[in-house]
Amino acid sequence: MTVPISSPNGSNEGLRGRPQDSRLPSNDEGISILAARTNPDAFERTLSDPAFAEIEAHPYIGAFGRAYYSAVHGGPDHSFTVCVKGAPAVVCLCAPLDGNLGFHGMPLRLVIRGDLGDDARRAAVESTFQHLDALMQAQCLQEAFVLVDRERGRTLIEEACRARGGTMCPHSIARVDLAAGPVGWRSALRKSSRSLINWGRRNLSISYVNKDTPDRALFDRYRAFHAEVAGRVTRSDMSWIVMFDWIVRGSGELIMAFLSGQLVAGSMFIDGTEISIYASGVYDRAQFDKPLAHYPLWLGIERTQARGMRTLELGEVPSRDTVPDKEYQIGYFKRGFATQIVEQPIWRWTSQSQVAV
């Protein structure tokens, strides 16, 4: 079975008490809202506009993420575009989960067109937040949270969050600059990791699932391994279908490591058009006295660069006192490979402190 990974939810169901495609209160900028749920074809055309290329650059919010997280969580997608005089100005990717407004449990994303004038940018951002206010009220949502990962429009976004009583939480992401090449990657490595990578190179046998080797049986073996290590099934059948279809089309790879013929590690990498993510890492807990993760991740860095990606995003690296020790240790491992740590603040605000629309 193949799941489409290029189109948003085509449902025509609108917001309770508010049309999805609507004129905001009249103003000189001529602002209107284009909603994915009521006009999916037009919204999809917006996503393919080169002015919003950064959406498809990242798999979390690109075609993969929109398909994968819908498969995992289901529920409505309330993504929309704010248009200024008929031209797309801001894309907001949002889908509520568990009573909160984010993007399928992650922070919602705002992508602002780069060539907007100051007045048009301010009006578009203000209108974006007005529509988010209306969404929260109509859907009885408790809290909204947005990740600010670009300088473009950051001040305006943060002003809008503060106006709603929002608070900022620090959020740090480990990345590998793939253009730095092996010399740059080695210089960034934690010293202890070098010998652990070499151990894996000597002792682990490697197999791949990708465009050249679309081995479904091997992929299903990893899926069973994932459930075994987790102690339960954590992902739906549909989510695994989306992942397999994505990597065998050439947009990622599964690296599987064997020790004495036994599967002991698996690392999955998912690509956007420019950025790849270290999407999954599973390791045999009975073999934790051995460095199972280091060599597969190093291979992943090399091979992700070979696929033409610009950046490999390893994931969050939280501070020790903010998360359980296991999460901190996972972040510590990732930090040891990163060429850069990027700060991406997350703003949160509650429905009780919203500004009236």
What would the keywords be for this entry?
single chain; Aminopeptidase; 357 residues; nine-stranded mixed β-sheet; 11 helices; globular; 2 domains; alpha+beta
Layout of SSEs?
Layout (H helix, E strand, L loop, with lengths): L30 E5 L4 H8 L5 H5 L5 H11 L6 E5 L2 E7 L1 E3 L2 E3 L5 E5 L5 H22 L3 E5 L6 H10 L3 E3 L2 E6 L3 H8 L2 H13 L1 E5 L6 H15 L6 H12 L3 E8 L2 E10 L3 E9 L10 H13 L4 E6 L8 H11 L4 E4 L2 E5 L7
Parallel strand pairs: 5-7, 6-7, 13-14
Antiparallel strand pairs: 1-2, 2-3, 3-6, 4-5, 7-16, 8-16, 9-14, 9-15, 10-11, 11-12, 12-13
Helix pairs in contact: 3-9, 7-10
Brief account:
With 357 residues, the chain is an alpha+beta fold.
| Portion in helices | 25-40%
- In total, the number of domains comes to 2
> Which residues form runs of ≥5 with pLDDT under 50?
1-28, 353-357
Strand content: 15-25%
* Straight-line distance between termini: 44 Å
| CA gyration radius, whole angstroms | 21 Å
Q: How would you portray this structure in words?
A:
The protein has 357 residues and is α+β, with helices and mostly antiparallel strands. The protein has 2 domains: 31-163, Aminopeptidase, CATH 3.40.630.30; 173-343, Aminopeptidase. It has helices at 40-47, 53-57, 63-73, 118-139, 154-163, 181-188, 191-203, 216-230, 237-248, 294-306, 325-335, and strands at 31-35, 80-84, 87-93, 95-97, 100-102, 108-112, 143-147, 167-169, 172-177, 205-209, 252-259, 262-271, 275-283, 311-316, 340-343, 346-350. The strands form 2 sheets. Strands 1, 2, 3, 4, 5, 6, 7, 8 and 16 form a 9-stranded mixed sheet that branches. The protein has a 7-stranded mixed sheet with strand order 10-11-12-13-14-9-15, sandwiched between helices. β11 (252-259) and β12 (262-271) form a beta hairpin.
